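Pasting as-is:
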Amino acid sequence: MATIISTVISSLTAAVVSGVIVYVKGVRKENTAIKEGMLSLLRAEIIRQHDKYTQRQYCPIYAKDALTKAYAAYHSLGGNGTITKIYNETMQLPETAEEVKQ
């Protein structure tokens, strides 16, 4: 009788551990997909803001603030340095149209 109980407990333990491993792998895969999607969205937004404000030849302070936050999030999520040049170019733009005219 003890061997039957031991066998059942061992089987249940193995099943539970296997289930947890499968669940954790699924969660990791989903988190990776979410992270990659967020990186893609942040990258696209940084590029869009760069193009918009480079064309205008100035970037308002509120836009620079939003861009700084997007850039920080991008790098916190593991984004590479290719966006750094675009970010720096945008941040160097004047903050008002009047500054461009001077």
